[in-house]
Structure formats: structure tokens, C-alpha cells
Inverse folding.
């Protein structure tokens, strides 16, 4: 398998993350959606989305990630999936799997859906209800997963892990095997959006992290030929930062429910960036030329220690949004990097939060519109 | 994981091979992953849309590329082990 030898900063996007709606039956306190959620009235129409897909295919997008909120709340999801299939774009449904009937799933499969990613908040029914803020969620999710496999669709279980469910990680692996999942994502919470607000309530201890690494390694050795396990470590305890979105404006394009286009779903935290809307501008222009996508392409914007670091082409200085959120400077080295002068302080903060008793969750909710 | 000559191999669930006119090459689409196979891999992956044994593959490729079947069999087996480890190709255990 080879990758391209061309300039990576002029490549077309590989994946399009379509946040079809911010509406969601669940209220997970680590949701990556912005605090300021988009209301239904401002969501793109079906025609808008089909037009986005036409432009995305022409631009070179190969995979469509149908996300939200809960994408199945859009009654036009079948039409969107069918259009992606017509354009030969690979479609991936990212769902909470509650309130989706088998008939609906069958219609999506017939429309050409390629893959289903199902979130499981906890394998303990009470824990699952408590994290998602939704009653009897686990039983519904398991029934949904069985329906996915009955229809012959490939299945990924997505386990977002944190201090409240990490001690049951082996159970997530058992559940993935029992449900005949093809893939399990064990993803430590990334602290953006609602997760940042709830960081102290979610941060695991270093001991929990180390145990999770060992469990995943053992499971890979035992079940590796049946189950692919992807593992995302928590940034704050890392040595090197993650290559966020594989580089700014390099592989991923995000379309928010209202049509704004972002290089990353958290990019709105960076002040001064103006995100063009698909209702006003062609997707190609937004990707290739808009100032927001150009802002952190290449290496010229970097400060030291990134600018002269041999790892700059591996991790691109880490995450711009995290540098903004934790240091107030989107050009700084991501403090998740051990080479950042702020790394020790950030790690100490994580240790302190994990050691203290967890505060109560602030659940992700769309506040009712004020009537005035 | 070892692959026996008569194991039946096929693209894994959820894996699609297509030509991408924008990049002018074949792409292998899998859950949360996109791979860019080299032309030799493409010639093999195209055949794995339907189950094939290692022997089938070696015979077909030897005839297409006019090369010794034994040599090809070794190269194909190595590539298959790699693609199985990457969950792009899977082994169908039941014998034909």
C-alpha cells in the first residue's frame, strides 16, 4: 500500500463529516458538538445536502460520515445515503441506535449504506442510562446492533471511555465479540465542546489509563483476527500530540447542520475565523481558497518548538483548537505535547482533576428558545 | 495469521474497491479508513470481490502476467497476510 508523494497540502479532502442535525435523544456530557447548538429551523434542506454531496464527490471526497446529533432524526437520511451511493461515496452512519426501527435500518441498507458505527456509553445498563441521560438505552442499542448484523452490514462499536466506565473496559470487548462487531473503537474522551465543560467529571486517573492500554493490547493479541480495535489515548497524558484531523485543511471537511464549513468540528473556538456557508459559496472554493481553511495549512504559522521540530510533519503541532482552549493562542504548540513549555502544568491539572471527587455532569441539551 | 493454499479469501465486510477519477488511481474504502493500493495489489483485490483461494490467485496471476506460479504464490501469500492483519481481506473458513 502506498500513499501519495504529492504536496499533502493541496490534496483533495478524503472524508466529509456531515453533521446533519444537532438534535439528539441522548445528552452525553462529553458530546463534541458546540455548546451553542444549531436549531432545527436553521438546518440545511434535503436539496442542500444533495448539492453538497455532488460538490464533495467532484472535489474528491471518498467517505461520508453521517453524524450529528443523531442523524437518523432526519427523515431524508435514506435519500442522502442513496445519493452518496450513486456518487460512489462510502457512507458511514454514526448513531446512538435508540429509536431506530429495523424497518428503517433496512431502508438505509437498501439505499446503499456501507457501515454503521454505534455508540455504547456503558455496558452497565444503569451507567449507560446515566451517561446518555436516556432510559433503557443499552437494551435498545443491543437490539439495534443485532439488527445491523442480521442485515449483513458491518458494525463498529464506539466506546467513549472515561473515569466512570473505564473499569468495565473488558466488558466492552466482550460485548463487541458477542455482537459480532467488526471493529471496536476505544476512545478516551477528547476535551472539546461539552467534554471540556465536564472535564473534571470525566478525567481518568493515570492508573486507569495505563490499565486500559494493557487491556487493549491483550485483547488485540487474543482476538485480533476477529475484531479490529482502534484506541484513542487521552491527550493530556500523551507524550506527543495527536495529528488532529491529519493536518488542518488536509484530509477532512466538516459541514455543520446550518451549512457552515469547518476544517474541524471544534474550529469555531478559534476567534477570528470566518466559516463560509455552502448556501453562499462553492465547496471547492471553501476547501481550496477560503481563509479559514488556509489559516493553519503548511508550517509557516508555527512557533517554536514546532517550527524546527522533526515531528512537525507527523503531528502538525497537534491540535489548534486545544492550543486555543488551554493557552489562548491557536498558534502555540499543543500543550498535550511533552515539548510544550506548558505540558507539565496541563498534566498536573489532569492528575488533580482525576484525583478529586467528580462534579456532577452538565448534560448536553438544546436549551428551549426563550419566548420574548 | 497464516494462510493455507486452499483457504478462501475475500474482501472483508464493508470494504469496497473503486477507481477514483479525481486522484486517477484505485482506492480501497473501509470503515474509517482509505487505502491507496499499488497496481499489483489492485489486480489481486479486484479478484477478491468474489472468494478465491491462494492457488486460484497464483494460477490466474501467473497466466495474466506470464510469470512462474510458484514465485507469484509466495508474493501473494505475503500480501494476503498483510491485508488480513489490516482487516481488509478475510478468510472464509468453510472449505469449498
Amino acid at each position: 500500500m502506498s500513499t501519495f508523494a504529492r504536496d499533502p497540502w493541496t490534496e483533495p479532502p478524503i472524508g466529509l463529516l456531515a453533521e446533519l442535525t444537532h438534535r439528539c435523544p441522548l445528552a452525553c456530557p462529553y458530546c463534541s458538538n458546540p455548546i451553542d447548538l444549531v436549531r432545527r429551523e436553521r438546518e440545511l434542506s434535503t436539496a442542500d445536502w444533495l448539492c453538497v454531496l455532488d460538490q464533495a464527490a467532484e472535489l474528491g471526497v471518498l467517505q461520508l460520515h453521517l453524524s450529528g446529533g443523531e442523524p437518523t432524526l432526519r427523515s431524508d437520511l435514506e435519500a442522502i445515503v442513496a445519493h452518496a451511493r450513486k456518487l460512489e461515496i462510502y457512507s458511514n452512519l454514526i448513531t446512538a441506535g435508540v429509536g431506530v426501527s429495523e424497518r428503517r435500518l433496512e431502508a438505509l441498507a437498501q439505499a446503499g449504506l456501507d457501515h454503521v458505527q454505534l455508540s455504547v456509553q456503558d455496558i452497565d445498563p444503569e451507567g449507560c442510562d446515566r451517561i446518555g441521560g436516556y432510559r433503557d438505552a443499552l437494551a435498545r442499542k443491543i437490539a439495534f446492533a443485532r439488527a445491523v448484523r442480521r442485515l449483513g452490514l458491518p458494525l463498529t462499536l464506539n466506546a467513549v471511555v472515561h473515569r466512570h466506565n473505564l473499569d468495565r473496559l473488558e466488558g466492552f470487548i466482550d460485548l463487541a465479540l458477542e455482537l459480532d462487531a467488526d471493529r471496536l473503537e476505544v476512545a478516551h474522551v477528547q476535551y472539546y465542546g461539552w467534554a471540556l465543560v465536564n472535564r473534571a467529571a470525566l478525567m481518568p486517573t493515570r492508573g486507569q489509563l495505563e490499565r486500559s492500554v494493557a487491556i487493549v493490547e491483550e485483547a488485540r493479541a487474543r482476538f485480533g483476527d476477529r475484531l479490529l480495535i482502534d484506541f484513542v489515548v487521552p491527550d493530556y497524558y500523551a507524550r506527543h500530540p495527536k495529528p488532529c484531523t491529519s493536518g488542518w485543511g488536509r484530509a477532512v471537511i466538516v459541514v455543520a447542520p446550518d451549512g457552515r464549513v469547518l476544517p474541524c468540528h471544534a474550529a469555531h473556538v478559534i476567534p477570528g475565523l470566518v466559516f463560509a456557508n455552502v448556501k453562499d459559496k462553492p465547496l471547492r472554493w471553501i476547501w481550496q481558497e477560503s481563509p479559514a481553511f488556509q489559516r493553519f495549512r503548511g508550517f509557516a504559522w508555527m512557533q517554536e518548538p514546532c517550527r524546527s521540530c522533526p515531528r512537525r510533519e507527523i503531528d502538525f503541532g497537534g491540535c489548534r483548537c486545544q492550543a486555543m482552549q488551554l493557552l489562548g493562542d491557536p498558534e502555540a504548540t499543543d500543550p498535550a505535547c511533552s515539548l510544550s513549555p506548558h505540558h507539565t502544568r496541563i498534566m498536573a491539572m489532569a492528575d488533580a482533576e482525576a484525583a478529586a471527587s467528580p462534579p456532577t455532569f452538565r448534560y448536553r441539551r438544546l436549551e428551549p428558545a426563550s419566548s420574548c | 495469521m497464516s494462510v493455507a493454499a486452499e483457504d478462501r479469501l475475500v474482501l472483508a465486510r464493508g470494504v469496497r474497491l473503486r477507481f477514483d477519477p479525481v486522484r486517477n488511481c484505485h482506492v480501497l474504502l473501509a470503515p474509517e479508513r482509505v487505502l491507496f493500493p499499488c497496481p499489483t495489489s489492485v489486480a489481486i483485490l479486484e479478484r477478491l470481490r468474489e472468494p478465491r483461494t491462494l492457488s486460484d490467485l497464483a494460477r490466474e496471476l501467473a497466466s495474466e502476467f506470464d510469470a512462474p506460479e510458484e514465485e507469484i504464490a509466495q508474493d501473494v501469500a505475503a500480501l494476503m497476510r498483510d491485508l488480513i492483519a489490516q482487516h481488509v481481506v478475510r478468510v472464509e473458513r468453510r472449505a469449498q
Observations:
- Chain B has one domain: 8-87.
- Chain B touches chain A through 22 residues (CB under 8 Å).
